[in-house]
Amino acid sequence: MSPARRYCSVSDSLITKPKPRYAYLTFLVDGSDYWKGALALHKSLQLVGSRYPLVVAVTKEVPVKLRTLLSSHGCLIREIEDVALPESYTPDKYLQPYYITQYKKLRFWELTEFTKLCYLDADTIVLKNRDHLFDLIDSPSEIAGVQDCTCEGYKFHYRLCNTKYCQIEPSRAPWTFPDGKPVPAPYINAGFFMLMPNQKVAKDLVAKLWEFPPTGLAEQDYLNHYFEGRIKILPLANNLMLCNFWNHPTKVSVETAEMVHYCVAGSKPWRFDPSKPNMDHPAVQELAKKWHEIYGTDTTTPLGAVSPNSATLKAVVAAERPLMSRSTVGGVRVVA
Ligand SMILES: [Mn+2]
């Protein structure tokens, strides 16, 4: 190779763009037992050999001891700020107090140290490697997600449009054009979505919330509204909500599930309540057991054949450590 050619190679490498940084993301709003869900999710990501770390976004209400615990397992902790809400956003029988805290998810777009994030509620686990999902979105103005089960009432604009409609299998319950409204755009469950952090989008999301009425499902309704027409819809297996086992039994199976979402009342495995409806369903029983297996797995020691990529993950986590100093980026405080 000629010296000139070598010179070109060096200059090419100098102008190479920074490597994209991908991460999984979950969220805790307080000191409640949801941290157990976050830890199980982290372990499940390790068990399937995910190449990217789990970021746990926490509010100021999340105690230091929980942050330290999750950090000791290799999670990255990022504190996010509150989101100011209009006065009309007061808790009531529609907009429940727990749901109101979820508007803070809008701060995820401020986590611009990451190029792309795969957000997962803390009441989820992954059963298959999902690293390929990061290829799905290319723009901060879009998200990707999975349609919510609307069989028990179409939820978007809850107070205006509480009609029974099945968006997953419309043949079961067609749209009835209430008040002449056209068939709605696909409506995703906000327990899982892919996003690209971006300060401009982050500011716009928070600003436009003030033009939007409070609705029963809080940030889920708002994200569906804000990104309408810009949501990539993924198969149900990517966010398998337990209610799909009885509402859409031909569409889902435990075997094909990539991620399980313990969203149904009573089904959170760390406080399973067998007295709630459908908790004796074989799939619910099997997946509750699965969660406990994963939660009980010691992922702090090398996982060998179970997780061929665990060494890779440890390397990623180790590489993150120098970044974990105290500083503030946008509304995000880097705290651990
Ligand atoms: Mn959830």
From TrEMBL:
- InterPro entries membership: Glyco_trans_8 (IPR002495), GNT1/Glycosyltrans_8 (IPR050587), Nucleotide-diphossugar_trans (IPR029044)
What is the enzyme's main class?
transferase
- Keyword annotations for this protein? Glycosyltransferase, Transferase
Q: Any idea of its EC number?
A: 2.4.1.-
Q: Which domain of life is it from?
A: Eukaryota
SUPFAM superfamilies xref list = Nucleotide-diphospho-sugar transferases
**Any Pfam family:** Glyco_transf_8
Which PANTHER family does the entry mention?
GLYCOGENIN SUBFAMILY MEMBER
In Swiss-Prot or TrEMBL terms, this protein is called Hexosyltransferase
Source species taxonomy: Eukaryota, Viridiplantae, Streptophyta, Klebsormidiophyceae, Klebsormidiales
